[in-house]
Amino acid sequence: MSALSERVKQDLRKIEELAKSLDGRIKIKSTEGSPINKIVLEIKYPTAPSKAYPDKVQDTTEVKIELLSRYPFQEPTATIITPIYHPNVYTSGKICFGTKWLPTQGLDLLTKRIIQIITFDETILNEKSPANSDALRWYRGAISKNPNAFPTDKLVVRETKKTTMSWKNVEGGGEERTLVSCPKCNASLRVPVGKSGNVFCPKCNEKFFIRT
Ligand SMILES: [Zn+2]
Question: Is the pTM of this model over 0.85?
């Protein structure tokens, strides 16, 4: 498998993970190319389809992400296929990210940014060089008339907590402790009661999960 197709596979996996943490509010609708160079995402976050927002709301947005020939060194492009009226989106639907693309960043981060854009997250809204200045004028008026209508939603990512305890942070301290033994070498380890997580055996370095 080529480095590019391996990278794209990783990107798709990261998007799937993001989808899970967002309770399925985003979905990979289709992919094209070999290796894959077109990805259509379905995003279930409300946005403004026209000046009629908030009377009219677009509930589902479709975005086409295109990976150019020099991806990941070349920035991917993203085009919104469904109606949207937004200062940072050209009338063609092409999104103006206004940030520098880094090859090390994954398409999950790009997807998060797309969600922030379509929901009018004001922390990333770029009013200095709008892609659609009519939409910017409309947005300024609309937010002063209907301040509660913006952002149109909020991106809340649930971070999955991975607790890793090392021998150091389970030794010492005044908490109640109990003994567990390493499943590999049988060495015993004193750990606080009421904890769960991965620990490393100080003797054989085996990593194992405990719940005390
Ligand atoms: Zn061990």
Answer: no
Residue 160 included in any domain: no
204 alpha carbon – ligand 1 mean position (Å): 4
Total domain count, the chain: 2
Q: How far is the CA of 207 from the centre of ligand 1 (A)?
A: 8
Ligand 1 center from residue 166 Cα (angstroms): 13
Q: How far is the CA of 164 from the centre of ligand 1 (A)?
A: 16
Q: What is the Å distance from ligand 1's center to 21 Cα?
A: 34
In degrees rounded to 5, what are phi and psi of residue 6? -65, -40
Confirm if 118 and 45 have CB atoms less than 8 A apart. Answer: yes
Same structural domain, 68 and 105: yes
CA 211 / ligand 1 centre spacing (Å): 17
Per-residue pLDDT of the chain (212 residues; tens, 9 = 90+): 688 999 999 999 999 999 999 999 999 999 999 999 999 999 999 999 999 999 999 999 999 999 999 999 999 999 999 999 999 999 999 999 988 899 999 999 999 999 999 999 998 998 988 999 999 999 999 999 999 999 999 888 776 545 455 554 444 445 677 888 888 898 888 887 777 788 888 888 888 888 87
Q: Does some domain include residue 118?
A: yes
Domain-embedded: residue 188: yes
Element (H, E) at 208: strand 207-211
- Domain hosting 51: range is 3-149
Say whether both 133 and 181 belong to one domain: no
The DSSP result for 174-185, as a single string, is: SS-EEEEE-TTT
